[in-house]
Design brief:
about 625 residues, alpha/beta, Rossmann fold, Transcription Regulator spoIIAA, 4 domains, 6-stranded mixed sheet, 23 helices, binds iron/sulfur cluster
């Protein structure tokens, strides 16, 4: 009986009984099914949420295509089953399987899990359990797959340390290839799993948590990470590629509706605007851009292989892409008559030109989104996002004038030292924007204020500050709900309990791993979904683990405090991040470092890159030949 066939029959019985069976069958256009007999290494790529969300993840699509281009490997996909399917799998004792060959995940050599955000942790344990794989590394011998994880959330890997064999810190595209090569060499030997982990620990960007023991001070604060293994590097520096990764062109065309049915091209990686709350801005430096020619070629090939009608030009701040106007123009000309919609998420108000707006108006879809993040001058200086009210109002006017009826404005409450006056400015600014909208297009104008709550993230200048207390957040939200009522105004907010969850998962130490496991065992999962109210389960888990969640989220940190994530080096030096924090306390602004380098430390971490690929466009002056004097003077 061919590998995986038996599962087919079982699935045929249960799939008609679950919602959206298309999530569990694979066989989509551009999915790749290889002959298992012909390959050496099998990798299961896992997005720990449902298919509808995970399928559009560009990171997994890049890994899927690049691994399957290797003749000696195959990569297949798996996602979290929805509750009805989970119940069926358990009832029929069917282990979680891959979509392509319906092979149980426990039969793969390597399972690669992407963790873009922390609220996917319980789903990750659930996936291991549904795959009949022990959730803790200590309970897994070489008979089980090697479990690796990567993604933004892993820049503080400690809360998930007991569950993951190896973390891939930084740009996983290259590290995963090194891990596969290392695995293949090990598999040919008769060595122990420990020997494999030792070899992996020598790869740039790989962190083996089982090689370290965390030590704590008597007050519970983190003291240090004791390396219990001679091969364990003191610090694990994020991996960065000399060249932006392969741009996928054979996007899987889903047979059911998913969140994004589109071509996605990463036009630029990194952002150096230096917003002090922004985790992605700190961990994705330096800036690297794809050429316009490469982007156009990628879109052309992707259109041919998918028939999609939308292309998303992705980056952390697409309007900062040097040739953004030329790019949008070329796309409009090259694909005229193809009914192609161009979406350009994450536009910055201060680099977004009316010209670009003109070019995009042909692709107008629904509302237009801008993210001022804060409304008062004071707060904008603290978070280092210096956008004047005047600039925002004139940009808004131009947007309404060009046919958009709805403007979405993203703000955050809870930034350090925020007052109710700062919060009141949010409501006032939204009303002013509505005012210019009405001036431009009359009563059709609408302003949607999306107000999330700030969580101080690791490796950012605000890692020392405390998260707002729940009651304070409720008070601010109550105020905004009152103020942002009336025609043309809409207010969305994040449930403070969800914010607390994100905060303790992103700021936790290795002790929080017990809380995650207890919460999961008590039923917590789909924590990224607001309608899964797991808060009480989590609070119960904290008390069962004899830990106090407020210790992690509501405690201001001393400047010399050691963080549980300090052994992960994001390329940006801690001293630079601390300077930025001190600048925020004195409301001191810092401009985009493309104009002037502030010696964040990225160069030291990646000096070797300069020589690697002259073709790549670097936008970090210190990665251009003439290193700035700043860097030389502060390079220790
Ligand atoms: S090295 Fe300088 S220019 Fe490069 S990212 Fe850091 S601060 Fe910016």
């Amino acid at each position: 009986m061919e590998k995986g066939n038996s599962l087919f029959y079982q699935l045929e019985k249960i799939l008609p009984l679950v919602e959206k069976p298309g999530r569990y069958v694979g066989g989509e256009y551009n999915s790749i099914v290889k002959n298992w007999e012909s390959i050496e290494t099998s990798i299961a790529l896992v997005f720990p949420d449902i298919y509808d969300i995970g399928l559009s993840n560009l990171g997994l699509q890049i890994l899927y295509e690049s691994i399957n281009q290797r003749a000696d490997c195959l990569a297949e996909r798996s996602y979290s089953p929805w509750q009805d399917m989970e119940k069926m799998l358990i009832e029929h004792n069917i282990p979680l399987y891959s979509l392509e060959s319906k092979i149980p995940l426990k039969e793969f050599d390597i399972i690669g899990i992407t963790l873009p955000y922390e609220t996917l942790y319980t789903n990750t344990l659930n996936i291991l359990s549904l795959s009949q794989i022990p959730v803790r590394t200590n309970d897994r011998g070489k008979e089980f797959p090697l479990i690796v994880a990567g993604g933004h959330a892993t820049y503080n890997p400690e809360p998930m340390a007991p569950f993951i064999d190896a973390f891939l810190i930084g740009e996983g595209e290259e590290i995963l290839m090194d891990v596969i090569n290392c695995f293949q060499a090990w598999k040919k030997s008769d060595q122990l799993k420990q020997d494999l982990l030792e070899k992996l620990s020598t790869i740039n960007g790989v962190y083996i948590p089982s090689f370290y023991e965390p030590q704590y001070n008597s007050d519970g604060t983190f003291q240090k990470l004791h390396s219990s293994h001679k091969k364990a590097p003191k610090k694990v520096t994020k991996r960065i590629m000399g060249k932006l990764p392969y741009a996928p062109t054979r996007f899987i065309v889903p047979s059911i509706g998913v969140v994004h049915n589109r071509i996605a091209v990463e036009i630029m990686r990194g952002c150096t605007r230096g917003c002090r709350f922004c985790h992605a801005g700190m961990i994705n430096r330096p800036i690297r851009e794809r050429t316009v020619k490469e982007i156009i070629n990628t879109i052309e090939k992707s259109l041919e292989s998918t028939g999609f009608e939308e292309v998303a030009l992705l980056s952390l701040s697409s309007s900062d892409y040097t040739n953004v106007l030329e790019l949008v123009e070329e796309i409009s000309e090259k694909f005229v008559g193809k009914n192609l919609t161009i979406s350009l998420p994450s536009l910055r108000i201060d680099s977004f030109s009316v010209e670009l707006m003109e070019k995009l108006k042909g692709s107008r879809q629904g509302g237009f989104t801008l993210a001022p993040e804060a409304a008062s001058e004071r707060m904008r200086n603290i978070i280092n996002k210096p956008i004047s009210e005047e600039m925002l109002l004139s940009t808004a006017y131009e947007i309404f004038k060009r046919g958009w009826h709805t403007l979405k404005l993203y703000f955050m409450i809870g930034h350090p030292s925020e007052t109710m006056e700062d919060v009141a400015e949010i409501a006032a600014l939204c009303k002013k924007v509505l005012g210019v909208g009405i001036k431009a297009i009359g009563k059709r104008a609408k302003v949607h204020a999306g107000v999330s709550t700030f969580v101080p993230k690791p490796h950012t200048p605000f890692q020392w500050v405390a998260c707002d207390q729940e009651e304070i957040i409720y008070q601010k939200q109550r105020f905004l709900r009152e103020e942002l009522k009336g025609p043309g105004l809409k207010f969305n907010w994040t449930d403070p309990k969800e914010t607390m969850k994100e905060a303790w998962l992103s700021r936790g130490d290795r002790k929080v791993a017990d809380v995650i496991e207890i919460a999961w065992k008590n039923g917590a999962k789909f924590d990224a979904w607001q309608d899964f109210k797991n808060y009480d389960i989590w609070m119960k888990a904290f008390s069962e683990a004899n830990l106090d969640p407020t210790f992690y989220i509501h405690r201001e940190r001393n400047l010399d405090e050691v963080f549980p994530w300090d052994h992960i080096h994001p390329g940006v030096r801690k001293s630079y991040i601390k300077t930025e924090y001190l600048n925020s306390l004195s409301l001191q602004l810092r401009g985009d470092c493309r104009d002037e380098c502030y010696a964040c430390g990225i160069t030291q971490a990646f000096n070797h890159l300069r020589k690697e690929d002259p073709g790549i466009i670097w936008k970090c002056p210190n990665l251009s030949p003439s290193r700035s004097k700043n860097e030389l003077s502060l390079s220790n």
